[in-house]
Design brief:
By secondary structure, the protein is an alpha/beta fold. α1 crosses α2 and α4 crosses α5. The structure holds pyridoxal-5'-phosphate.
Length: 230
């Protein structure tokens, strides 16, 4: 093994043990949170090494870069998650190449993803990204628009609405992160009291995955903690 292989293997083991401890502290079942390794700006070779250490879910933000890696890694049974901002001229490529999209935040994008998916067999699994903190410049639908968006997305033929995703404020205090993630969980519960059957909460990254898990995350998204600094 090369030093890079060993580092990724050690980092993955460390992150997995943080996840396992957090699940146990939260009284949640083993493996009820899955790890997405965020591989943006890291090479296909490093992804291959992470796979060799048991990693299956990978997250990407940039369409061109992601597609070149997805094509090079076609021999591996990986699940690809698109987690970045979505431009409408990229929806076809995202819909064709990815298994999941976490960053759906408006109807037009959802419609285009559904159309783009139509030729393939399985529905594209999606989460709605919610801007809980209400910052002007931030991705995500407003809380006030979430229910209507969820109803409309639910009706699109080639999407499967699975859950919600959020990001805390930059430099948020631990308590602000708790509040943000807790609110996302409450929104999922409220939607499920209506007609929805959402089973996914995508929240928590390298520095706050414990809070995500305490608040019910089923996916955490970790880049630097696995691959190092970009
Ligand atoms: C980059 C990114 C991550 C991972 O961030 P790191 O700082 O690399 O751990 C998680 N979620 C989203 C939406 C991202 O864009």
């Amino acid at each position: 093994m090369t030093p890079a292989d060993l580092r990724i293997k050690d980092n993955l083991e460390h992150i997995r043990s943080r996840i396992a401890s957090a699940l146990s502290r939260a009284g949640r079942p083993d493996r009820s949170t899955q790890l997405i390794a965020v591989s943006k700006k890291f090479s296909d070779e490093l992804i291959r090494q992470a796979y060799a250490s048991g990693q299956k879910h990978f997250g990407e933000n940039y369409v061109q870069e992601a597609i070149s890696k997805i094509d090079k890694l076609r021999d591996l049974p990986l699940e690809w998650h698109f987690i970045g901002p979505i431009q409408s001229n990229k929806t076809k490529q995202i819909a064709t190449k990815f298994d999941w999209v976490h960053s759906v935040d408006r109807l037009k994008i959802a419609q285009r993803l559904s159309e783009g998916r139509s030729e393939s067999r399985h529905s594209l699994k999606v989460c709605l990204q919610v801007n809980i903190t209400g910052e002007e410049s931030k991705q995500g639908c407003r809380v006030a628009d979430l229910f209507e968006l969820a109803y409309l997305v639910e009706q699109l033929p080639h999407l499967e609405l699975r859950g919600l995703m959020t990001m805390p404020k930059a430099n948020a205090s631990a308590q602000e992160v708790v509040d943000t993630f807790r609110r996302l969980g409450q929104l999922k519960n409220t939607l499920n009291q209506e007609v929805f059957e959402l089973d996914v909460l995508s929240m928590g990254m390298s520095d706050d995955l414990e809070i995500g898990i305490q608040e019910g995350a089923t996916f955490v998204r970790v880049g630097r903690g696995i691959f190092g600094d970009r």
